[in-house]
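REQUEST ID: PR-0412
SUBMITTED BY: lab tech R.K.
PRIORITY: routine
TASK: structure prediction, single protein chain
INPUT:
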Amino acid sequence: SETPATATTVGALLGLRTQLYSNALRKLPYMRHPWEHVVRWGWGGLLLDKAKAANERRYFGGFIVVAGKALMFVTEI
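STATUS: complete
OUTPUT:
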């Protein structure tokens, strides 16, 4: 079974990687401002969790199965 924290964890790691890569490109120490890493962890985790929820709503919440056929319906515009 899939753990619910997977998207948040992956997003947090992507946020950390983005900050480390940004510092490396500018030839700065990796942990120059540690608070920036915490902010990136939070934003990365939040954004990937929101993307996962949007994907689940789009692909799993918008279908009705009638007699073995999937009919798509729109709930919001």
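NOTES: Residues 6-72 form one domain.
REVIEWED BY: pending
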